[in-house]
Description:
This protein is mainly β. Helices cover 8% and strands 69% of the residues.
Amino acid sequence: xxxxxxxxxxxxxxxxxxTHAETPGWSGEGSLAAGVTTGNTxxxxxxxxxxxxxxxxxxKSAFEGFADYxxxxxxxxxxxxxxxxxxxxxxxxxxxxxGRVSHERDEFSGFDSRSFLGGGLGYQVxxxxxxxxxxxxxxxxxxxxxxxxxxxxxxxxxIGVPGDTVESVSFIAASNYAFKFNDAVRFTNDTDAIYxxxxxxxxxxxxxxxxxxxxxxxxxxFDVRHDTNPPPGFESTDTSTxxxxxYTMGDS
Length: 252
């Protein structure tokens, strides 16, 4: 290896080490949950979740993923997977732009999968020691994969309805609110709405989290999911009530 190559490699390593030292690492939480679901499935289920975020100067990267599963009498009654990624760029102390992509698979909702790609503007309404509130909104594209189903016609005959793929211009709006009662107990309420031609989704999750020891917490949460136009034979509203163990990672 030439001296020039050695010098270049050394400079890259030194630069990378310096950047790593100046940039905070990933932080977030992992969770293990058990709960009950009502709506399209009436079942007890288990779930795992992961949320990670990393801030570097004016940029913030975030990732979240969840999986829920349940069986009843040997038959699968719930199997939902959700993943999302978001990149924010700070514009002012409170305003930022964002880009977001998400994908969900939940065959028991009537939609085989749902994907969203979009972006917009966000604003930090409150950023205090006890209260924080962030709102976001912007346009995007939503792809709904509707599963094939069987329904009864007016004469009582069973007919098959083929699946379909609907791509439509959409709009996302989100609200993330948090309130700290004290250093050990906090309340959060996260709301998401995604408008699309096929069906508009509303999702609200209210949670109370209490620290047990060090980085381990307990959480009680109530989740409501509503579709304005579910496929025939499916309920428009699902609810989930959960108790979770939450492990905090990094500086969260």
